[in-house]
Fold this sequence. Notes:
- The protein has 267 residues and is an alpha/beta fold.
- It has one domain (22-266): Alpha/Beta hydrolase fold, catalytic domain (Rossmann fold, 3-Layer(aba) Sandwich), CATH 3.40.50.
- The chain has eight helices and eight strands, in the order H-E-H-E-E-E-H-E-H-H-E-H-E-H-E-H.
- It has helices at 2-18, 38-43, 99-116, 134-144, 147-150, 173-178, 218-231, 250-266, and strands at residues 24-31, 45-51, 57-63, 85-89, 122-132, 161-165, 203-209, 237-242.
- The protein has an eight-stranded mixed beta sheet with strand order 1-2-4-3-5-6-7-8, sandwiched between helices.
- The protein is globular, with a radius of gyration of 20 Å.
Amino acid sequence: MKNLITTFCFLFLFLSAFSQEMVYQETKDITYTAHSDGYSQEKCKIDIYYPENKKDFITLIWFHGGGLTGGSKEIPDYLKNKGIAIVGVGYRFSPQVKVVDIIGDAADAVKWTFEHIAEYGGSPRKIVVGGHSAGAYLSLMLGLNKRYLSDRNISTDMILGIASFSSQAITHFTARKEKGLTEFQPTVDELAPLFWVRKDAPAILLITGDRELEMVGRYEENAYLKRMLELVGHTNVKLFELDGYDHGMTYPAYPLLLKELENWTKK
């Protein structure tokens, strides 16, 4: 009888722990930049949404879209309550600063996350960079061009993966504008993710809308990026085209992202 009671007690405790509802917290407007000017202090802030009663979780650093000229930091609603942390990043805009400076802001936000996520219960070994449109471009630039993070004493090898929603793979149109070029003058230079394809880049998830509905050439750019990565020997890159969806294809993409996060943590 005593053994039976003990068994029931252990079973009750196990089921209680298993059914415990995950609790989430959100902390807003954390400054991550070392720049002391007013504009940097205004824009270079993050919000962090994380599970309070879970440890060693995945953290997705999420860069918003807006052409590198607008927008605001965001934590996508669909990704809430999914057992992961999300760091929503704000950054400076063109023309107030150059595109290289914006990429630098993104790198500073990644540095902050690596240095502080353990304080919230997260794992520095499970950090993913991602975003939509201009935010996806920033993610690819950080993950493919080693310099931005290495300048901050972070190796791109430390990144679990890159989640890119409808990024530019050629030079971003805002960077081209800085040189007097239009969006219909495609360029591949040091401000293009394509320029930095390499075998040893982190795992990469590329998702775009329908090629006939997307912004100028986005699907084709991503298809070429995937092909070039494969040609140099990269073995963990996937591309999804969401038929029937235009540039605002984030909802159908979020479930694919969550599934890929699971795959990356199993490897």
